[in-house]
Amino acid sequence: xxxxxxxxxxxxxxxxxxxxxxxxxxxxxxxxxxxxxxxxxxxxxxxxxxxxxxxxxxxxxxxxxxxxxxxxxxxxxxxxxxxxxxxxxxxxxxxxxxxxxxxxxxxxxxxxx
Amino acid sequence: xxxxxxxxxxxxxxxxxxxxxxxxxxxxxxxxxxxxxxxxxxxxxxxxxxxxxxxxxxxxxxxxxxxxxxxxxxxxxxxxxxxxxxxxxxxxxxxxxxxxxxxxxxxxx
Lengths: 113, 109
What we know:
The complex is a heterodimer. Chain A is mainly β. Chain A contains no helices and 11 strands. Chain A has strands at residues 5-7, 10-13, 19-24, 31-38, 42-50, 53-56, 65-71, 74-79, 88-95, 103-104, 108-112. In chain A, the strands form 2 sheets. In chain A, strands 2, 4, 5, 6, 9, 10 and 11 form a 7-stranded mixed β-sheet that branches. In chain A, strand 7 (65-71) and strand 8 (74-79) form a beta hairpin. The mean pLDDT of chain A is 94. In chain B, strand 5 and strand 6 form a beta hairpin. The mean pLDDT of chain B is 90. The interface between A and B is medium-sized, with 24 and 19 residues.
């Protein structure tokens, strides 16, 4: 079992460019979460989905950020346009819900120059 | 406002010494509490949860509702305990985990 899969693992881009991060949750998990990790702010929840439906996007920093989950096996997080302050590690996690363990992907390290 | 606080960003301890990571929370209702850990070059993973009342890798955590704390403890630190530790209350109202800023633990040989 590969667990939660994220791509790319590393992304370096220039300010103003569009960035798309991808996530494949564990099969059978019906909740998916996007987090951002920085030294200053720790691990922040950006958005989460239940059964492919966005439930809480209050953590999405700005309109430049958007997330979709077109089906149970795929989700994207898009930043357009990207800015240097978006540089961080972005994690995707999935769970069967509620109090059950969240399983994290390896993360995408984003650097915006 | 709901909040979780991990006051010490970096904690260095010698091998064999006790280690304690503090976590205080401010949540309405009675949240469930978790500790997650991220070892170097590994994924963030669950370490332990309050409802299980278990000891994992020698770590325990006691929920003190009066002090709204869920401190993580281990009596004798090992080098392999060097990692980033996150306290995470689960709020039934929000139906999600909220992570603290994390504690970086460095165990000195």
